[in-house]
Amino acid sequence: ETDRRRIRARIHAVTADIEQVRKRRAQSRERRHKASVPTVALVGYTNAGKTTLFNVLTGAAAEASNALFVTLDPLVRQVRLSDSRELLLSDTVGFIDRLPHALVAAFRATLEEVADADLVLHVIDAAAADRGRRMTAVRDVLEEVGALDVPLVEVYNKCDQLTPDERRRLVEQDPAAVYISALEKEGLDELVETIVSRVELDVRRITATFDPDDALDRERIARLYRHARVVLHETRDGRFTVVADVPRRLLPTLKLRAKPE
Q: What are phi and psi of 239, to 5 degrees?
């Protein structure tokens, strides 16, 4: 009876910890939405190389391991692009085949990151003999957490372990995917270009004039440079005019209107 009480107490404590993680992640997501920073979530079968890719792209030092469920509370790091814009990259728990409903509930905090992301990168072990089964398992979990509607890019990792013929056949089979080796840092430029193009597909060109003496306008200019592609910046009569390509989802938060076609 004493053991049962200890087990029940431990289950209660773990459940409370999970709920705290869920609340903390929800608060973090709300802050990111207010800041209008696009989020890219890494998903994949366990040992697909997600955390290695995460470390390479972010310069972080998260633990990379072959063990199950090393990444529980999602790791979120900033990635600064070559033109100074920013996005957030989230590493999530590695999936397994037929992930039990109880575990899906337990990992809800980390999996909610995926459903709320702007883009999902499905990292696939290209050299795995049962690659197809693993891909199906990941899609099943994405469906379970309501993330099937999030735009997704398939990223075949560990391509350095393939023969030239194996790689050629894989590319022919899935030409829209990206092929990389996170460990050898191969194909990363193409991956970053793909990420940028996918999170910016729905952009609108705007022309806006700002008062540099107004604190709110200065903040808007800073956010434009951080999250949009500025095409033109002119100063005339003490005011700034900016022409920029802005993701449509940011227009309401920046209180800007698209330039008429």
A: -125, 155
